[in-house]
Amino acid sequence: MTGQEKPRGGVNSPEILIIEHSAMVGNIIVSTARQLGLHTLRLVSNARSAHHFMEHQAFVGLIAALDDEEEALALIQKLRTGKFRSPENMPVAITTGFCGTDLALRLKALGPRRILIKPFKIRDLVTTIEALTDQP
């Protein structure tokens, strides 16, 4: 590693929190990120668990599946109003099976960097993880 590269995936490296209800999908995402040397991902299965982690730890990004849409959107809203340890402008990405006009307008107000429509390609997810850790 040269002096210009950022350390990634180490024991004390900053983490991205990922909310994914499917254990299989979540584990694939986490193991792929690990194999590619991307940031460490902390996987939780629902917004309630994410809320607990965000109260006690700062993260560098959030990838939230909208399987429980209202809970996930409420969590992001709390983030944006500074209720957690992470900065309120922390980058957020959304994964969802469908994004109609109503949801798109609700999401726009919360300022996600990316919206991935399921099923998405692993390449798109890798790009999203990289985008969450880049400076805006």
Automatic annotation (TrEMBL):
InterPro entries: CheY-like_superfamily, Sig_transdc_resp-reg_receiver. GO terms for molecular function: kinase activity. Residues 15-133 form the Response regulatory domain. The keyword Transferase applies. The keyword Kinase applies. Keywords: Kinase, Transferase. This is Histidine kinase.
